Queue: 4 jobs
Job 1
Amino acid sequence: MNTSRRQFLRGVGGATLALPWMESIVAADQSAGKSIPLRMAHFYVPIGVVRRGFFPGEADHIIPKGNLGNVMKSLGKQDPNPGVKSLENLTPTLQPLAEHKHQLNLITGMDRTFQQGTDVHAQCASCYLSSAKPYTVAGSAWPLDRTLDHIVADHVGGTTPFRTLEFSCNSHRDNKESIYFDNISWFGTGHLAPSIRDPRKMYRRLFSNQETSRYREVTSLVLEDAHALEKDLGREDRDKFAEYFESIRAIETQMNRLESIKSELSKVDFEEPTEAYLPRGDYIRLMGDLMVTALQTGLTNVATLMVGPERWDTPYMFDGLFDKPRSHHQMSHNQTKMIDDLLRVDKFHMEQFAYILNRMAKIQDADGSSLLDNTLLTYGSGLGDGSTHQYNDLPIVMAGGGSRIKSGFHVNLSEGTPLANLWLTQARLMGVPIAEFADSTGQISDILA
């Protein structure tokens, strides 16, 4: 068979849809010296977390008050001594990850240094993936440099249609804040890598062009040409092929559903913007599905997904949690009074991350490993606590990596360990030959197999 997995199925008018890794057609890539790549994806949650719900051993701690800023001490770790422990009993916020806890690590103790003079929320988002040494970037009020995703893409992005993909789940347009509050991916200081917030626009970018989308579904066009290829596939790959196209159909159906809801909501005079009433979980999972499909098919090997903006005070419904839209940021400044509601929001976000993790775990690559085995998938936030604005002891969960990673542990690092140590570790796992990253002091050897 002469078809390479790297070739695209082409439909009428140039519609394209990439193929997942399948045993029947991966041989062409292997004969050319190509193997199943390691991918990297980041799932960013704004406003930090409620510590007593996320961090082991802090359930009974006093809720902190005031703006602690960049303190260099933790607010009650599980153990005053650093070390590695088996990840047995998950905290309430981490419970949605229970099914896959053997495929992830909870990493605590990592810090970022706050550069005085700018807003804490702007730095925690925009500098999350760069963490440049404070006051070293000329012409910037933020320690913001080229972010990890683009540094990795410089090394692994040359063979994919998209070097990186930036997803955002902020549908609001009432942006009272600057771009630094609403973006985690940057080409460099002052040079934003703009994210796509509309699922339809992302879908068209990945699978369509304007001409074909005017007439018919992309999948309908591609399926017509797919029959010739399908007859050459083995039985297992035919099943995988069908499952893949069903997932694309499901994405289209979900997009149509959300667009229909938005259209109906626009006819009602709400106190809040129409977007505030859209099903929040559906929106995040849809963008997650698009990201997973892009990684599965080799459209990109590097992606970021930002769940929401920092400090915009934008209200959301948070499906099923509240009877009206609520502002995550405003709630975070009333943690004592709204502790239960905030814990529900944190768990809601973790459920969306767990959905993506579960999707990746079920997708099989040609060698029998899963997409999750071949992806470094990280959940994180730029704040250790949304109420106190602390930059130390950040909430980080790293999943995937397969045999390259020792998983199923709570890795409690020494106080003051830079977050950049994790980014250095991930960059090297992705094959980037660098000695340091930002203010890193070394790799996190505890997670390396």
Job 2
Amino acid sequence: MAAAGGTAGPSGKSARPITAVALSPILSARYRARDLERIREAAPEARLVMVSHEGLADGPLDDVQALLRGWISADAFDRVLAKAPQLAWVHSASAGVENVLTPSSRERGLVITNARGVFSQPIAEYVLMMILAISRRLPQLLELQRERTWQPLEGVELRDVTIGIVGLGSIGGAVADLAGAFGCRVIATRRRAGDTAESGVGPRAAGGETADEADRSGDESGPTEANLGRVAGPEGLPRLLAESDFVVLALPLTPDTESVINDEMLALVKPGAWLINVARGRLVDERALVRALREGRIGGAVLDAFREEPLPSSSPLYELPNVIVTPHTSWSSGRVLDRSIELFCDNLRRFARGEELLNVVDPAAGY
């Protein structure tokens, strides 16, 4: 119930003091003293309740109104919900929300926000790093160094490279901007060809989840149109695969996108092209990908997301010479935690004032 004398914000809800805020582990790091201080400044009347990975709280949850959800499972999240009858808003520290949009949270009608816009820059830099390394044949040059062999290799200039971005949101847009600076041709698909917002990806806590980002946050303007060639809807994926030298997966995991890269799609990939996945592992049929890699039907793959994480040591992906495996680290930089806390605190103040929140998730779309 709204506090007496509260004023209605743009969301139609009344301003009210926040009594309690729950915080679960975020970005595989402990909250720093300055993070907690910033949260207290944003909600000075609120009691802070720490929630463990397993969903165990260090205090009562009955009056918690807001939850900053980091690395906890869907089951642990649902246990927290059951003990927090006043919970009205959950902010996901990742952009991916499939473990937040549980049947319980949908039934409660919770407002869900996410971390779109927080991780775009480091992930885009990771993608360009890999494209440059492969185009300039860095893996082979390092092997020659280990063998003490002097053998110059011919590289490819990026002006001769086509990058296909699957999911043109804040991540995909950041990739497009960086690629455009190198003179690459950039083509893309998004949920609807005319959309100004689609999804990309964000971080995963160590052993936890990464997230898909859509370009709806206040500090993300999306790709510069001059850096983009053709932008199509999902029906344009086959053509994108056939034309791209690098295919970058930067789209959300939904029922419609699970295993979007399968045997059928891999058969359409341009010979010699590389797949780069900085989104969800479940976007890719890994068995189909291993077959395509072993048979040389595609040039190679850069994988930063996997169906099972940590990736088991028995995975054949470790052994394939045309695969680069990284431990879901594309999102990581020294700035992401600061941006994550800043976004949450901004929304915390908005929530207290009854204003519209940033990065509200559409439960129907799943991001």
Job 3
Amino acid sequence: MQMDTQLLLSVEEAADVIGLGRTRTYELVMAKKIQSVKVGRRRLVVQSSLLDFVQTLLLEQECA
């Protein structure tokens, strides 16, 4: 899979990228911690939001 060319990922693909399970990734999407869009019946994750999510986790750990 070429991450540089894909702007939208399925939730399953996004889960693979960040190393989490599909269910946990869906929870993060529904909690709006990871940005997503709905195209037809599909829920697609905005690829750039994955990096934002990880950076937020790092910042939270630095402050703790």
Job 4
Amino acid sequence: MKNNFANFINKTISLSMSMNKNVICFGLGVTDPKGVFGTTLNLQKKFGSARVFDAPASENSLTGMSIGASMLGTIPILNHQRLDFALLSLDQIINNAAKWHYLYGGQINIPITIRMITGRGWGQGPTHSQNLQALFTHIPGLKVVMPSLIDDLPTLLLSSIFDKNPVIFIENRWLHFSETKKKFKPSIRNLPYHRKISSGKNITIICYSYMTIEVLKASKILKKEFRVDVEIIDLVCLSPIKEKILIDSIKKTKNLLLVDTSYITGSFSSNLLAKLSKLDFEHKPQILAMPDFPEPTSSFMTKYFYNNYISVINKTLDTLKIKKRYKVNQNNHIHDKPVDYYMGPF
């Protein structure tokens, strides 16, 4: 198997189940031939149907079962093939999973990892591609993790599984195809943590999930063609936030761009900018996010809807009041699927 994002998820879940017999993995599609985009393949064969199993389509009930099981010492990994499907379980997530530890004076923990997969393109449209992470970051008691780089993924997922709190683990499905030459070496760390993945002096870009990949592409072009030196902070954990690494970076660069995967109004980045607005800036900080419209279904309409590295470059130049613009022929740009050989979500 390739050392890609989906395979590393599979390996991490397998490792967690080998480490602790109380870890279970279940949800819609977990045992089907495609195994939730390849992330749960062969787990049932390895650990048996009592620990790895499919389930009826009742997301609210499944989440409630997970909460009850966690109280009895089980460590559930609940899988949703779309974040949109998990919306049916918001009552259990918000009113029970997030609250139980507080309702009972810290005597009970709910160690659930709820995997939610989001994405874009390939005709997914407005009801199968939503980026609603801001909703979960609004809820005290939930930890929200959104991995970006494949090399960080195993540690992030393993740390989420063995965290004592409920963790919303959101994966952008375009990342499932990313690959690495590095070995699979997960460890367990305390959540939250954030990563500075490049140092720079002109502007801080705070990003997460798939847009971190686009920011990395953009930063190389910005440095080469515009002499703009970018410092990149990959948030990794959206809630709770440790602000120190962000503040230290902004104090150095004096400029800020936040790059989000969701709609701009009510976005996670809008809330984060409100927290950081007390700092001194050379230029007004900016947010790059999607417009306030449901994601289109057609390939024609998605071509200029989603942001990419070109959007990041030009928004960075705009933030720094640089009048130049980066132009490139996007006719051959793959905008509607993660890789050219991609043949469908399942």
